Recover the amino acids of this structure.
């Protein structure tokens, strides 16, 4: 159980989510781990597909009550002149 209590954690959650490739965030504490989240997208340009996958990842994390995703990674496959991109990481609550 978190020492801050569930009500305080809920109050700290915001509609913005930080996405980082590291497993920690400097000067922040992970107070709740919500679990694996992912977002996927496809497109003709790899950069556009990556951006869309990140937007999908962030939307999923926010829906679970996270204010950050740590350990963000990508997996991409090119086929038929298009890219399929999966972005994934761990949804967390930071304070």
């Amino acid at each position: 159980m978190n020492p801050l209590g569930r009500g305080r954690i809920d109050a700290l959650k915001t509609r913005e989510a930080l996405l980082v490739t590291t497993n920690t965030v400097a000067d922040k504490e992970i107070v709740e781990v919500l679990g694996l989240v992912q977002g996927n997208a496809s497109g003709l340009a790899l950069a556009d597909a990556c951006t869309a996958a990140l937007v999908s990842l962030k939307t999923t994390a926010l829906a679970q009550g996270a204010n950050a995703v740590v350990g963000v990674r990508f997996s991409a496959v090119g086929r038929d002149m298009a890219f399929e991109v999966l972005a994934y990481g761990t949804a967390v609550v930071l304070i």
In short: The longest strand covers residues 30-43. The chain has one domain: 6-94. The domain at 6-94 is CATH 3.30.110.70 (Translation Initiation Factor IF3). The CA atoms of residues 38 and 87 lie 6 Å apart.
